[in-house]
Specification:
single chain; 380 residues; alpha/beta; 12 strands; globular
Length: 380
């Protein structure tokens, strides 16, 4: 039984939790028995400058601490790895599927990795939301970790270029592996529209201009397809729910959950999905559901690993082109469903092979085989 520390968020970004679902499925598949610990990057728990705030290391048993923290960032009551903890009980650190692997929020975790000399894995990490170009210089503790990482895979070609000197491998984001099963699609009956708004936290929003374009597109989709298919909205953030009702009326069919695991069942009911949430496209792909991504920032390249077509924001206003893309998605959904199921299987197999080699000392059953799904893959 080993102790693994994952960098992720809880109750902040459902996409981070979808990624962790996929990582844990890989670990389970290769036979590692482990306890799950997280360093919670949720900014309500660990804001960006946490590493420089000595008050965050105050012991929660100090008298009056629960009242003081209403006004100051004192201590941590979250059930996660706390800044200042001795990390020598941890055996392995993992960064997965996010551009935030080198953000300030993670600096306390990098300190633990350095102080406890933790072996580290980077699994499907990404480039950045901004359109960064050129060589980046990372803080020393991050460079040291990259230099001695057990494995480094990246989820987009931007990260592949940015991290070229560390010899990364290009693989889809582990969110592709988040679902334990897939649906088989024979025809399209239901379309999921993944909603985004500008009226929310800057980490979750799209621009006001992008939102206006999206609203116009979704009105068009309802007008052209509403009589043929069931159409519903999916929200990842609570701020989006009242925004949908204000924009599309109280009769709009809306799905949201505070529990990220519920999104497996939420997305399962659709046959195609459309939207600007990279990991809404990702968890759908894991379920075998093809998607059309509305790209609005530098993270859009991730959807290549989900076999999704990306329409860049400069093209959102081209209604004719978008409708043609949606028609093509509806027509080819059964074939793309088969492609996704096969792609997911081979991605899992590749991740398992890499991790078996990198983490062999933690694996009890080294000759375990990845079983191919019971259904037959049919690709025209």
């Amino acid at each position: 039984m080993i102790n693994v520390l994952f960098s992720t968020t809880r109750q902040w970004n459902p996409g981070d939790e979808f990624i962790l679902f996929g990582i844990r499925r890989i670990f389970d598949e290769i036979g590692i028995t482990y306890n799950t610990f997280i360093f919670n990057r949720n900014p309500e728990i660990n804001p960006p400058m946490t590493a420089f705030n000595p008050l965050k290391k105050v012991d929660g048993r100090v008298k009056g601490e629960q009242y003081w923290k209403s006004f100051l960032r004192i201590g941590s009551a979250d059930n996660s790895f706390k800044p200042g903890m001795d990390g020598r009980f941890i055996d392995l650190a993992v960064f997965a599927g996010t551009p935030s692997w080198c953000s300030r929020e993670n600096l306390p975790m990098y300190e633990v990795i350095r102080d406890a000399s933790l072996p580290t894995c980077y699994l499907g990490i990404g480039g950045f939301s901004a359109r960064v170009t050129g060589k980046l210089i990372f803080p020393k503790k991050i460079q040291e970790t990259l230099n001695r990482t057990l494995i480094l895979t990246v989820r987009d070609r931007k990260a592949l270029d940015l991290l070229e000197e560390y010899s990364p491998k290009y693989l889809p984001c582990p969110a592709l592996l988040s679902s334990p099963d897939e649906k088989i699609i024979k025809k399209v009956n239901a379309i999921g529209l993944i909603y985004s708004t500008w009226r929310t936290h800057k980490s979750h929003c799209i621009s006001q201009e992008a939102h206006q374009k999206m609203v116009r597109l979704y009105h068009t989709i309802h007008s052209l397809y509403g009589n043929k298919y069931r159409i519903a909205f999916v929200c990842h953030y609570i701020d989006e729910v009242p925004d949908i009702y204000a924009t599309f009326g109280k009769n709009a069919e809306v799905y949201y959950s505070y529990d990220a695991r519920d999104y497996l069942d939420i997305y399962r009911q659709f046959d195609i999905v459309i939207g600007a949430r990279v990991h809404g496209i990702g968890i759908s792909a894991s379920l075998g559901i093809p998607g059309l991504h509305l790209g609005h920032d530098g993270r859009a390249g991730t959807v290549e690993g989900f076999r999704a077509r990306n329409i860049d924001i400069e093209e959102w206003g081209d209604t004719k082109r978008l409708i043609a893309a949606i028609d093509a998605l509806i027509t080819t959904a059964p074939q793309q469903n088969a492609v996704l199921r096969d792609h997911k299987y081979h991605t899992m197999k590749t991740y398992c092979e890499l991790l078996r080699s990198a983490l062999r000392r933690y694996i009890d059953i080294t000759d375990e085989k990845l079983h191919k799904p019971a259904y037959e893959i049919e690709i025209d």
